[in-house]
Amino acid sequence: MNNLLRLEEGVARIVVDDPWTLVREVDAELPSGPLILPLARWLEDPRQHGVWLGPDDEVESLKPWFGQLPLIALDFPSFRDGRGYSQAYLLRTRFGWSGELRAVGDVLRDQLSHMRQCGFDSFAVREDKSVEDALKGLVGMSVLYGRSVIEPRPLFRRR
Known about the structure:
This protein is an alpha/beta fold. It has helices at residues 39-44, 83-93, 109-118, 131-136; strands spanning 4-8, 11-15, 21-22, 35-38, 50-53, 71-76, 100-105, 122-124. Strands 2-1-8-7-6-5-4-3 form an eight-stranded mixed sheet.
């Protein structure tokens, strides 16, 4: 996957060799190698593949497979669609997902800091954008007032 950023020990890095191939179509012919499959296709054969969820997919449906899932990708069909933030937050907080959580789709620099606060640790930046420029978007804000996956205590509790 091109234009991929990943957080490694809290530091954002550009990923040069990403082994995963995102398959968007349910009925597409599958290439070889590690795949990220749409939920409907993944449910047919959940072994050793990652899964991607659209905004309308329920994250709860994956709970029985958390132990064997290597990666969950959440789709942002448009930068205006924020349902992926809620899905990520639920996966990290309510369901305790600790594996790789990847943002895919219309992922832009301005969204990355907030995505990180919601629990994403890898970001497939839109291919027509500069991954080097997007890397700057992960620097984030120096102080967060509200709670997040990274810092569950609000600012007034941190004093």
